[in-house]
Write a structure and sequence with these properties.
The protein contains 28 helices and 6 strands. The protein is mostly helical and 615 residues long. The strands form 3 sheets. It has a two-stranded antiparallel sheet with strand order 1-2. Strands 3-4 form a two-stranded antiparallel sheet. The relative contact order is 0.04.
């Protein structure tokens, strides 16, 4: 409803109570005309104010209350029926319109004590409005005094705390605190809107300023506002505090942020740009409104309620960004940051899910880049140590200990199986390049993802599984065919574990002769000659030359090679198997040492059996 229609409606409303003016040019009617102008301005202040009902009812309940009041006042039933018929006509005219505010205004105007007295006692309508105006003024003064005594205005309060306090009774009276709050505003709506434009940009205003203790914007202590106005102002001012926190985090990321945090900060920067674009649009609407409104004019295009509605979505996004920032501000970055955002994706609110997915997609871009390079080339490019795979301090152990997994850095949406696959693929590629000299296959034939695979987490997971199968097959092929891993394992079982019986028997016979002849002066080359003699006198001579060259007969403790007797010499002799790179990274020295210990034990058992059979 525009200002002209509102003025006409209010004048018609007054004429139903006061009657029409007979002659507006008559001097005797001048006082009546001035009085009606005052009433008109009074009605405009009510319509344009933020005063709201304590609770909201539907239009039908208001009509029922009006009919009950008409019946109890002694009027005939035709009046109640006429009210019901008029309301039916209104609903037929526009069924979607909310008639409750208008009906509530009419009901409240007709249910006051002063109106009843005026009607029953024949008091003039002018005395009724004068009495009502005096009552309202006294109510305001009493409410202001009680609010000053009951409220602490030095520190700003949130809308939630104010609404909670308003529900508590004060001084044993039936009135609650929202009745005590002032029913007028210390500043008009236009001034508040212009003030809030600065607050939304993180700048203190005249009525709303930053409180360093609460880290929020609050209303100045000397400013009094009605409850609805206070709640709307604090809700809009919350945007400034949220945006201020996001701005500070973005500035910190630009100066000292790590890779994942910089990516996360870029998404926050885009959200801030959209937020400030909205603020600029609201400011443009306010620029078209005159600084001072004449009586009867209203705010066209912008009001506290409209600004509150326009900013509802961006307020929810800023709150989510602050939740994510608080979760990663003091964290380790990387997987910890992604885990914090992933928890928001599991929220039940569709709006939260959609916004968190967008944040996660941007923040995980560096993670995806590091992961793809790791599973396609075996190179770990992680300058800030944000990936869950780290290079250890023992780079010489290319397979067992060169890389390790940091469990705290694994994102929560990556399960254990997928994490193990990612680690194995990159480690295998690095092993092929560094130890097996197979970098040509890694460069030319290693699996490469499609552009769609990196954009979709599910497709990326499927690519990791495909790459794991391909890379592991290539690694086993190289180790088996090029370096004979399984042939060496079989040779260890036959020769070192003495599965080939004639070789163990020949070795015992040769060693027994050598040790019996010169137990105190036997040297390392004597053991080598004994091993060669045992190989030539058994079927071990048909073994692969690489296997025979890896077999070594030596003293377990070279420092005690010069023993005092035959038994001590037998205790010190051991048979070893020496592998060459890259097999030494797969079957490491600790494993071969265990095989050597087992071989020494078996050799002593074989000697016991040999001695018993020779008796």
């Amino acid at each position: 409803m525009n200002a002209q229609n509102l003025d006409s409606a209010l004048y018609r409303y007054m004429e139903t109570f006061l009657g029409p003016l007979v002659d507006t040019n008559d001097i005797s009617q001048h006082n009546e005309l001035e009085r009606r102008d005052r009433l008109h301005r009074f009605f405009l202040s009510i319509v344009g104010s933020n005063i709201s009902s304590v609770y909201r009812r539907d239009a039908e309940s208001v009509i029922a209350e009006m009919q009950k009041r008409l019946a109890s006042s002694g009027r005939n039933t035709q009046s109640a029926i006429r009210v019901s018929r008029l309301f039916s006509m209104l609903k037929q005219r526009d069924a979607s319109y909310d008639w409750w505010p208008i009906l509530n205004l009419i009901s409240e105007s007709s249910s006051t004590t002063a109106a009843s007295v005026a009607y029953a006692g024949g008091t003039s309508t002018s005395s009724f409005f004068a009495t009502r105006a005096g009552e309202m003024e006294r109510d305001r003064e009493r409410a202001m005094q009680m609010a000053e005594n009951a409220m602490v205005v030095d520190e700003p309060q949130s809308a939630y705390s104010v609404s909670q306090q308003q529900q508590q009774p004060a001084g044993g009276s039936d009135e609650t605190l929202y009745r005590m709050l002032p029913t007028y505003d210390a500043a008009d709506e236009m001034a508040l809107l212009r003030d809030l434009i600065y607050v939304m940009q993180g700048i203190d205003g005249t009525c709303v300023r930053w409180n360093e203790k609460t880290k929020m914007y609050g209303i100045c202590g000397d400013m009094q506002f009605s409850r609805p106005t206070r709640e709307m102002v604090l809700s809009i001012a919350e945007l400034g505090a949220l945006a201020r926190n996001v701005q500070q985090y973005v500035m910190w990321v630009e100066n000292s942020g790590r890779l994942f945090e910089q990516s996360f900060g870029s998404e926050l920067r885009q959200e801030l740009a959209a937020y400030f674009e909205l603020v600029a649009g609201i400011e443009a609407k306010l620029a078209n409104i005159p600084a001072e409104l004449r009586p009867g004019e209203t705010l066209a295009g912008a009001s506290l309620r409209r600004v509150l509605g326009w900013t509802s979505d961006v307020r929810a996004r800023l709150r989510l960004m602050n939740v994510a920032i608080e979760g990663v501000r003091d964290g380790l970055g990387g997987g910890v940051l992604l885990s914090t955002i992933s928890t928001l994706v599991e929220d039940g609110d569709p709006f939260t899910q959609q916004f968190a997915r967008r944040l996660l997609a941007t923040a995980s871009a560096p993670f995806t880049g590091i992961l793809v390079r790791w599973v396609t080339t075996g190179e770990l490019v992680d300058p800030y140590n944000e990936f869950f795979v780290r290079e250890s301090s023992e780079p010489d152990k290319l397979w067992a200990k060169r890389f390790r997994v940091v469990r705290d850095m694994i994102p929560v949406h990556y399960d254990r199986v997928l994490t193990r696959k990612i680690f194995q693929v990159g480690r295998s590629l690095a092993f092929l390049r560094g130890a097996c000299a197979d970098s040509e296959w890694v460069t030319a034939q290693a699996p490469q993802p499609e552009p769609e695979d990196t954009a979709d987490p599910r497709r990326l997971e499927a690519f990791v599984y495909r790459a794991a199968a391909s890379v592991n097959a290539r690694l086993m092929h190289v180790l088996r065919e090029n370096f004979g891993l399984m042939r060496h394992v079989a040779a260890i079982r036959r020769l070192l574990m003495f599965e080939q019986g004639d070789f163990s028997l020949s070795l015992l016979e040769v060693l027994d002769r050598h040790i019996a002849r010169a137990s105190r002066s036997i040297l390392a080359h004597d053991l080598s000659a004994a091993l060669d003699s045992a190989v030539r006198s058994s079927n071990a001579q048909y073994e692969d030359p690489d296997h025979l060259s890896a077999l070594v007969l030596a003293f377990a403790n070279p420092s005690s090679a010069q023993s005092d007797g035959m038994e001590e010499t037998w205790e010190n002799v051991s048979l070893r198997y020496v592998l060459s790179a890259p097999l030494t990274h797969v079957v490491d020295a600790d494993t071969l040492r265990k095989y050597t210990d087992i071989s020494r034990f078996l050799l002593r058992l074989k000697r016991v059996d040999f001695v018993l059979n020779s008796v």
